[in-house]
Specification:
single chain; mainly alpha; Methane Monooxygenase Hydroxylase, Chain G, domain 1
Length: 88
């Protein structure tokens, strides 16, 4: 445990942010899984709605620094490709 007051604060802030980031990552993964399950069930309307929610969640995560913006872009592209392929 650090002795300096500012270092103690940094430890507390880091813990708080880590918990928040983990929760947001978990939510993001849940949204992606909902899209995957809708796609596997061939329910295209639900899949389309889930895709929109997943893309929005990816954008928010990238904006807040939870994931890198290139990773968000790559995931959005791959999800959209899978949706378009299944919709044919």
């Amino acid at each position: 445990m650090p002795n300096i007051k500012s270092a103690i604060k940094r430890v507390l802030v880091t813990k708080t942010r880590s918990v928040r980031n983990a929760a947001q990552k978990s939510t993001l993964r849940t949204m992606l899984k909902k899209f995957e399950s809708a796609l596997q069930q061939r329910d295209m309307e639900t899949a389309h709605a889930a895709l929109r929610v997943a893309v929005r969640s990816l954008d928010k995560a990238a904006t807040k620094g939870i994931i890198h913006r290139n990773q968000a872009s790559r995931k959005k592209s791959r999800l959209t490709k899978r949706y378009n392929k299944a919709a044919m």
